[in-house]
Each structure stands twice: as structure tokens, then as C-alpha cells.
Amino acid sequence: MTRTETVDTVPAWGVVGHDWAVALLARALTERHTAHAYLFSGPPGIGKTTLARAFAQALNCEAPPRCGTCRACQLIARDAHPDVRVLARPADKKNLGIEDIKALREEVALKPVEARHKVYLLREAEDLSEPAANALLKTLEEPPPGVVLLLTTCDANLLLPTIVSRCQHFRLRPVPWAAVVAHLEHTCGVPRGEAERLATLSEGQIGWATRAAQEPALLAARQEQAALLETALGSTTLERLRLAADLAERWTTAPASVREALATWRRWWREQLRASLAGQPVAFEAEVCWRALDRVQQAIDDLDANVNARLALEALLLALPRRPGGRHG
Ligand SMILES: [Zn+2]
């Protein structure tokens, strides 16, 4: 991708980076052939819920296509509209259970209070328990008129295929770099240079980039994690083993922080790969980046599978390439 492309400063429906999806949904609305169920899939933080909410607004806006300022649009933006319900797994529960879906099914049958469409936004649908997913299927099979179900998930493979097949499926990609920069610069007022730095670290996670622009601690944590990797790439075997031991110890007390560090490392390699493929000057060839990416993913999978953390992290640190000019030994 080139970094000189121009980007609209005011994106349609206020949704950054998914113009094609907004265009398709808008056309379905004007041609009056909206589906009764939609699935928005893609990595975390890229704007799936933002798009779903904007669509709920478009379905019910008092000044179509989607003004963003009428009573319906404002209530929906605050998740306070009586006919637009947002469901997600409670933080203290493992799943969204059958009781939640049963309640939804009873409610779905009632007429809307004031809206044209009753909308149910089910976030992270992969968190549905199996009985809940089966109960939801019944609603998807025969939804009452005027009801629209919107599902989001980070990975459609985690859902029952029968659920996916009953939805119109939008596969969303990370937000393009230039669109993240434009959003940070024009909407959030972030100076150009910083917007570019944040966009690179965000790897298309517009939600993270927007938060990090306001919370420097988020940015600092990600930079620290990247610095740790960059140091390791220039260090000796012994130093790498020490870092693996440190991380393994941290894994026992604060596993989330190790997970975040590895996710940052994965982003770091993807960015190197992207730059390398774009012909920009980077320290590593694309082939080396691919292999490193693979190793980081392997370590993440191993930790998730409860492989001995020290072994998994040592294997990763020893397999990572040495930066040209790095110290041997
Ligand atoms: Zn409106």
C-alpha cells in the first residue's frame, strides 16, 4: 500500500475504513431489501460494533440516510434506544447463556416501542453457549417482520455454521493505515507525525488508536513491549534466555501482560513485513518476517494450550532472527 493515498476526512455514517460495507448497507436501505440478520467479522478493535451501531441508526434515523443527530440516532449512539438492544457477555460470565437468548426471543415478538425496526446487536457472538446459539437459530429462522439482528465476532469460524449461513456476512479488514492517520488528524486533532506513529502501532485497530491518542499510557505500554523485542533482536543467546525466563515468571503472575507483549510483537513483525513488501528500507527481508511471525504465533498458541511457558518462550526467543549488527554469542 502506498502512503500517499488520499482519504475522505468525513467518512460516511461516521465509520472509518469500511467504506465498501457502508455503501452496501446504504444501498440495501435505499432499495428496501435489507436482510433480517447480519454478521460483521474481523479482528478486535477495527470498528465492527461502530459499523453495526451506525447501521442501526440508519435503519431508524428520522432524517435518513443517517444524520447522527436526530433523537433516534442519539439514543442509539448511547445504547439507550428502547427498540435497539445491545447484548454482550457479562464480564463475570464465561458465556452469554440460554436465559439471555430466551429473553431476547420473547422480546423480539413484541412490537417496537417507537422505531421502524427493532434491532438486536449481539456483540462477540462467539461467546454464546451452545444451547444459546441453538436458541438464537430459531429466531434467525423465522424473525418477526421489522426485526434486524446484528452479530459481531472476531472469528466467524467460532460460530455454528448454521448461524453464519443465515446471516449476510461482512468480513471486515483492519482499517487502512492512511484512514487511521486521517481520522486521528482530522477528527481527534492529533498532530500529523504522532498520528502516523500511532497508526503504525495500531495495525488497523482504529479503536485502540483513538483511545491511545487520549491515553498516553496505552501508547507507552505498546512502545515498551516493542522496545523489548527490538533489544532482544540485537542481544546474545544468554540475554535472550534471561528475557525468556523473565517473561515466563511474569506469565505466572500477570499472563495478560505477556499476551499483550506477544500481540505487540506480532504487530511489529507484520509492520516490518508490510514495509518490506512495499519496498521500504527495513532491517529484515520479507521471508525472515514471515518466519518470525510464525514463531510468535506458535508461542501464543503454545501458551494458550498450557505448554510449559518457559520452554515456549525460550523456543521463541532463540528462534527470532538476529538484527544485522546485533551481538553474537
Ligand atoms: Zn438520525
Overview of the structural elements:
With 329 residues, this protein is of the alpha/beta class. It has 2 domains: 154 residues, Rossmann fold; 113 residues. The protein contains 14 helices and 5 strands. Strands 2-3-4-1-5 form a 5-stranded parallel sheet, covered by helices on one side. Helix 2 runs antiparallel to helix 3, helix 8 crosses helix 9 and helix 11 runs antiparallel to helix 14. It is globular and about 70 Å long. The two termini are 38 Å apart. The model has no long low-confidence stretch (mean pLDDT 90). The structure holds zinc ion (ZN). The site of zinc ion (ZN) has 10 residues, from helix 3.
Write down the Rg: 22 Å
Assign the structural class, choosing from mainly alpha, mainly beta, alpha/beta, alpha+beta, or little secondary structure: alpha/beta
CATH class of the largest domain: Alpha Beta
Whole-number mean pLDDT: 90
Task: Please give the number of β-strands.
Answer: 5
Give the strand order, joined by hyphens, for the main sheet. 2-3-4-1-5
Query: What portion of residues belong to β-strands?
Result: 5-15%
CATH superfamily of the largest domain: P-loop containing nucleotide triphosphate hydrolases
